[in-house]
Amino acid sequence: MKPLHEKVALVTGAGHPNGIGRAIAQKLAEQGATVVVTDLEQAAEDMADAVEQLKALSGDAMAVAMDVTKKEQIASCVEQVQARFGKIDVLVNNAGVGLGSTDFTELTEQDWNISLQVNVVGMANFCQAVIPIMQAQGGGSIVNIASLAGLGAIEAIPACYTASKFAAIGLTKQLAVNYAKQNIRCNAVCPGSIVTQMHKATLEFIAQEHGISVEEAQQHEDAGIPLGYSAQPSVVGDAVAYLASPAATYVTGITMPVAGGMSPGI
């Protein structure tokens, strides 16, 4: 029997075909979970494709278009999942944004507001909506997707992004302590250089800033990774699937770098 057989998992920010959220959803489905994917309304078509792929892996799946910065939409999403599946065993808070200038003095109030609302407050509100369900059913697993930038400052990363990811890790650790006795585990995964649409945009920005090609920017980044390469999103999915599974029953409150050996902190 697969490790997540009969489990229901909800993954936010899972619309983009090449994103970390989609890879996480696929890995959870491969392990037997019924997966609910969420993303913004404009990703509805991509989410419909995701549902078909996930059904082929685990038999059933569901998509909900919603915005994690809207508390009422979070409540509606959770209600829809409960109405259809009756429970939520795994919550993966993957929805996130990376924006703003690398020059701290040029960051705008909007840069800060969006970064914190999506990367921290949205995560907190989703946890707040799902934890009572997990309490009632005797436990569950929450996995928050942070970043290597949440473990230590990295050059050329906007300060608003770094600050938001540090906050996400602090939230993770606090929830782990608060709810351990109720069998609710909460852990964070901290991806490093992962080949996604956001990674591509970052490389293009670095290339433009330094007058080099995107290929040269990638080579420069790879040179700073002990394993020597940027990984596919599926490696993050593997880490999440482990933390969500019975194999991690005694694991809570950790921050797991998935970064090829890069680790500015723990």
Reconstruct the topology from this structure.
Elements: E1 8-11, H1 20-30, E2 34-39, H2 44-58, E3 61-65, H3 71-85, E4 90-93, H4 109-137, E5 140-145, H5 159-179, E6 184-191, H6 197-210, H7 214-223, H8 234-244, E7 255-258
Parallel strand pairs: 1-2, 1-4, 2-3, 4-5, 5-6, 6-7
Question: How would you explain this protein's 3D organization?
Answer:
- This protein has about 270 residues and is an alpha/beta fold.
- It has a single domain (about 10-195, about 230-260), classed as NAD(P)-binding Rossmann-like Domain (Rossmann fold).
- It contains eight helices and seven strands; from the N terminus they run E-H-E-H-E-H-E-H-E-H-E-H-H-H-E.
- The protein has a seven-stranded parallel β-sheet, sandwiched between helices.
- It is globular, with a radius of gyration of 18 Å.
Question: What oligomeric state do the depicted chains represent?
Answer: single chain
The gross shape turns out to be globular
Do you know the CATH topology?
A: Rossmann fold
- CATH architecture field: 3-Layer(aba) Sandwich
How many DSSP helices? 8
Work out the helicity level. Answer: 40-55%
SSE pattern, N- to C-terminal: EHEHEHEHEHEHHHE
Q: Based on helices, strands and strand pairing, what is the structural class?
A: alpha/beta
Pick out the low-confidence regions: none
In CATH, the homologous superfamily goes by the name: NAD(P)-binding Rossmann-like Domain
Q: State the total count of DSSP E strands.
A: 7
Strand residues, percent:
5-15%
Largest sheet: 7 strands, parallel
First-residue to last-residue Cα separation: 34 Å
